[in-house]
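Why should sequence recovery work at all? Because a backbone constrains its sequence more than one might expect. Tight turns favour small or flexible residues, buried strands favour hydrophobic ones, and helices have their own preferences. The token representation captures these environments compactly. In the example below, the structure is given first.
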């Protein structure tokens, strides 16, 4: 850094992006916390009613998480230039060169500043988004197939019902008005979804640790106010960022 340069503020994260980020953090923390208790329910001696209650709470938090995620996906089409797909997704002309240059600059100390996501961050954010979308889709299927919650719960009840006119009688963990064969078919159908939900959860834990670690290391090295930028919307740089207008 040239000591004669002064730090200048650059606006980056718009209000929607910041709200999305913190709602996302809070709901994911809630989903991980309750998800872990569901995962170890047997070891923790949780009763059947307790499990249904935990899953209901997990699904309600999941709805907030899904709506927030859908809103962010829409925002990637209409938000400011740093919120858009072009600023998020890796690839495109010059991406690999930009990635090489960014890594070389990071190592040598001749840092290339980015107002939005740097090329490494694009890879990380895309991985996180893929995992979150996977969790959202598989979670909604599980909500329907496990405790008959929307948006698929009613369809699942119709599928497993002995008498399709009395689906109201079908309750989680109860065999009332449930056809054994069709229930077994439904459980076989849901099996890959729970497997993907679980492995994607493990990957997400690793990705979150990497994401937080990368932010701390980058902030220590670049000093551009990465963390406070998710509150204020602004980063500070000694030189004009590579992706600034
Ligand atoms: C970041 C997002 C999420 C994480 C980290 C997460 C994590 C977990 C974990 C660790 C489990 C326990 C898995 C097991 O028992 O094998 C679980 C189960 C479950 N999740 Fe999620 N989840 C997420 C999103 C969602 C969403 C959006 C929904 C639905 C709206 C959902 C619905 C469910 C249901 C119904 C179960 C119980 C499945 C069963 O035990 O059969 N999850 N989740």
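From this structural description, the recovered sequence reads:
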């Amino acid at each position: 850094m040239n000591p004669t340069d002064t730090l200048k503020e650059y606006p980056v994260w718009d209000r929607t992006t910041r709200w999305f980020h913190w709602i996302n953090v809070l709901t994911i923390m809630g989903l991980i916390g309750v998800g872990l208790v569901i995962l170890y329910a047997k070891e923790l001696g949780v009763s059947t009613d307790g499990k249904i209650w935990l899953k209901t709470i997990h699904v309600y938090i999941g709805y907030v998480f899904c709506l927030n995620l859908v809103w962010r996906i829409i925002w990637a089409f209409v938000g400011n230039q740093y919120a858009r797909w072009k600023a998020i997704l890796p690839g495109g002309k010059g991406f690999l060169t930009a990635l090489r240059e960014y890594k070389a600059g990071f190592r040598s100390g001749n840092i290339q500043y980015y107002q939005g996501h740097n090329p490494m961050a694009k890879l990380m954010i895309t991985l996180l988004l893929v995992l979150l979308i996977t969790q959202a889709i598989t979670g909604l299927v599980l909500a329907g197939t496990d405790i008959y919650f929307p948006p698929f719960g009613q369809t699942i009840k119709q599928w497993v019902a002995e008498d399709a006119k009395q689906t109201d009688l079908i309750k989680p963990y109860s065999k009332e008005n449930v056809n054994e064969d069709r229930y077994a078919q439904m459980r076989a159908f849901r099996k890959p979804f729970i497997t993907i939900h679980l492995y994607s959860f493990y990957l997400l834990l690793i990705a979150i640790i990497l994401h937080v670690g990368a932010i701390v290391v980058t902030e220590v090295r670049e000093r551009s106010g990465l963390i406070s930028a998710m509150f204020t919307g602004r980063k500070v740089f000694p030189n004009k960022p590579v992706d600034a207008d």
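A few observations help interpret the result. The first helix runs from residue 15 to 39.
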